[in-house]
Amino acid sequence: MTIKQLATSVAAATLIAAPALAEVDMSGKTIEWVIPFSETGGSAKWANFFAPLLSEELPGNPTVVVKFMPGAGSTKGANWFQEQEYDDGTLLFGTSGSTQFPYLLGDPRVRYEYSDWVPVMASGTGGVAYLNAEDGEKFDGSANNLQDIDFIYGSQGATRLDLVPLLAWEMLGMNVEPVFGIKGRGDGRLMFERGEATIDYQTSSGYLGASADLAEQGKAVPMMTWGALDDDGNIVRDPTFPDIPTFKEVCEATDGCETSGEAWDAWKAFFVAGFPVQKIAFLPAGTPDDVAATFAEAFDAVRSRDDFAAIAAKQVGKYEVFVGEGAKRATETGTTVSPEAKAYVQNWLQEAYGVTLE
To answer: Where does the secretion signal sit in this chain (predicted)?
Structure first.
């Protein structure tokens, strides 16, 4: 099912099933929106973008405060959220693909279960990979002139969302040495700015928030985006960055890189799981239906604002936003990959980085 088909089906389902619910008043309350990453990354910018808009649309206009709980590539915060019991809507949790991937891969540190949580909003994103100025001069739309360069990359971990760029660069025949252990993609960007890393990638919100300025200043050269999906599930140019080629285009132009076969199928499967449904807002398990519906309605009002498309394009990008039942179905899409893709990536992680997942 494509993202557009998903949006259409869930919209119809939402219109059919709309039970009468008690009115929820959140006057005087403070909602803590916990992000399991540092305050410098794309998830922080995503939550900080939506938080004031959500406050305006929730009944009683409660204060929405974004807090950060980085650690273990987001599994620390996700494991913590799994144990929380709130039924009044005062705790919201935001995940990203870096939370989804350890779950998908069977990482033994994962003690959380997505199906226990209550998704109220999900949104897609994209990603941009870029080079330092010196190496960027050698980029001609292919990676052919980059294959003899030793790159350094600040990474949260190979089982996180970083596996999408790491696998892409390997498929392009590039030598990229990850420095593992950073707490968020914003920290990777800071490594790049300090010259400690020579290649980087950011999700759309992170790129728009800071990395685009580096490109404008000539300190970074955009290499590729991961792309977006059209109605038939094909990878096309990212609508937020239409002038930057996709990984698929760069792969097609690079000697030895194939856009078919096991490696490509695995890369695309994890791209689909990690980006078109990339950031999700959850209420804890056991949240009453009326509270969940109130949040879904508030997020629906946010995405329906006349100015939403314009302000979103500047801060988080031009991507689909799902609410309520749409968020639930989008979450199922983002937390599912084929056994073949999972096996391929697990084998690749073992061979490339010595990572064994049991």
So the answer is: 1-22
Tell me how far apart the terminal alpha carbons of the chain are, to the nearest angstrom: 30
Helix or strand run (H / E) with residue 308: helix 308-315
Nearest-angstrom CA–CA distance, 18 and 333: 23
d(CA 309, CA 307): 6
Handedness of CA 183, 185, 188, 190 (dihedral sign): negative
Which CATH code of 3.40.50.720, 3.40.228.10, 3.40.50.2300, 3.40.190.150 fits the domain covering 3-124+275-339? Answer: 3.40.190.150
Got the DSSP string for 252-277? HHSTT--SSSHHHHHHHHHHHHHTTT
Residue type, 197: A
Q: Can you say whether residue 180 is alpha, beta or left, with left for phi > 0 and alpha for psi between -120 and 50 degrees?
A: beta
Q: Which phi-psi region, left, alpha or beta, contains residue 157 (left: φ > 0; alpha: ψ -120 to 50)?
A: left
Q: Which of 119, 34, 48, 123 is nearest to 79 (CA)?
A: 34
Place of tokens 């955009």: 222
Give residue-wise pLDDT tens across range 224-239.
999 999 878 899 999 9
CB-CB contact of 120 with 111 (8 Å): no
The rounded distance, in Å, linking the Cα atoms of 148 and 165 is 18
Tokens representing residue 21 in the block: 């619910």
- Residue 323 phi/psi, 5-degree rounding, is -135, 160
Write the pLDDT tens digit of every residue in 165-184. 999 999 999 999 999 989 88
Q: Which fold has domain 127-273?
A: D-Maltodextrin-Binding Protein; domain 2 (3.40.190)
